[in-house]
Amino acid sequence: TLTERLSRLVKTVRGQARITESNVQDMLREVRMALLEADVALPVVRDFIQRVKDKALGQEVVGSLNPGQVLVSIVHKELAATMGEGVADLNLAAQPPAIILMAGLQGAGKTTTTAKLAKHLIEKRKKKVLTVSADVYRPAAIEQLKTVTAQAGAEWFASTPDQKPRDIALAALDWAKRHYFDVLLVDTAGRLAIDEALMAEIRDLHATLRPVETLFVVDAMQGQDAINTARAFKEALPLTGIVLTKLDGDARGGAALSVRQVTGAPIKFAGVSEKIDGLEVFDADRHAGRVLGMGDIVALVEEVTKGVDLAAAQKLAEKVKSGSGFDLNDFLAQLGQMKKMGGLGQLMDKLPTHLAAKAGQADLNRAEKDMRRMEGILSAMTAKERAHPALLLDGKSKASRKRRIAQGAGVQVQEVNRVLNQFEQMQTMMKKMKGGGLFKMMKRMGG
Length: 447
Ligand code: GDP
Ligand code: MG
Prior knowledge:
By secondary structure, this protein is α/β, with parallel strands linked by helices. The chain has three domains: 2-82, Four Helix Bundle (Hemerythrin (Met), subunit A) (Up-down Bundle); 98-283, 3-Layer(aba) Sandwich (Rossmann fold), CATH 3.40.50.300; 297-446, 434 Repressor (Amino-terminal Domain) (Orthogonal Bundle). Helix content is 60%, strand content 9%. It contains 21 helices and eight strands. The chain has an eight-stranded mixed beta sheet, sandwiched between helices. Strand 5 (213-219), helix 9 (226-236) and strand 6 form a beta-alpha-beta unit. Residues 104, 106-112, 190, 245-246, 248, 271-274, 278 line the site of guanosine-5'-diphosphate. Keywords: Cytoplasm, GTP-binding, Hydrolase, Nucleotide-binding, Ribonucleoprotein, RNA-binding, Signal recognition particle.
């Protein structure tokens, strides 16, 4: 993942206090790769990288964060901002019925999404909803809309393949008016590729209906091609929103970025399954994490720091400052803190579902077991050993001490060594933060 690759790079720039032209170059290359792998279109990637670079240069690196982490958080924020901040529900501010026109390529998910939206409008906004199909090219398409509309609990207006799309639309509108429908959803035909006849037809439908929402439905799996499709629809129609479908698939969803950039329209919903309830309000922040191939790091950082005991952190900071150093007792206390935060399970919940599934329960169990085992090893040390780690690190009797500890904790001596290694790494980090940096950092994060 991007985070892994960046942390590898970061080893070489660790300890640098700000992001500079020289240390940012390699990191930006990784970000660029991650975006391309997520199928963001090349010109969009270029623009994006430039914006991130402008924001990142000169940025200070605080506390225990390293330049890579700071850059990732800038990238994450910029991605979320580009894909639209906050959420945008459907606009129904029109003389009823509010008309919603669906546009997009064949197979993008228009018909499915029409029914999903009908359900959403009925359940969340208590609307009376009518659907109609203006797809006269495939008789099955009209039947398909009839079926899914019934599943949504909405009403369906009959149409036949021998009618003109414009006549269908006008008849449905008339019916909707006379029967006091709040919303009329108009499903349309798609083609396998952009063609002029299709565009002319939907332009005509738009002019006839004057919809309050013109939604561009796009398949997240379409990848790099999404940008061309989006451009064509944007030229033909004044799009008011985007629905990104099939986000339950493997696609990393970079299409969101391209489509948003090209159309300027907000991404309003995401399709997350074939089923009628597989529609979610689009969450840009969460989606940014998916595009980057990592969890929502902002939420993670908040979660991790929420449970941090500031008093304990201050005590620790003072200890470091006074020169008494970070010892194994502190290490043990830190593990306790982590448990207090709800353990790793809580953190896993913050990951996007596809990542959490990848990490899986097995990894989680292993990590939790690791933590418990570390705790067991630390507890098997004497208080004196914990307060004077040197006894175990370079004392004369360190070998026999370690054997005793391993036996007490029921593990191999190598495992004791591993814990001591981890401790030493931590200690080095703490030394760097001497001077209260740790406390300041935790305070800042904990609010
Ligand atoms: P249309 O040609 O644009 O009307 O597309 P359809 O609504 O007929 O959908 C094409 C195919 O994509 C169907 O098999 C749908 O079940 C499937 N589909 C639509 N939206 C989603 C989605 O969000 N997730 C998944 N997995 N499949 C979807
Ligand atoms: Mg269809």
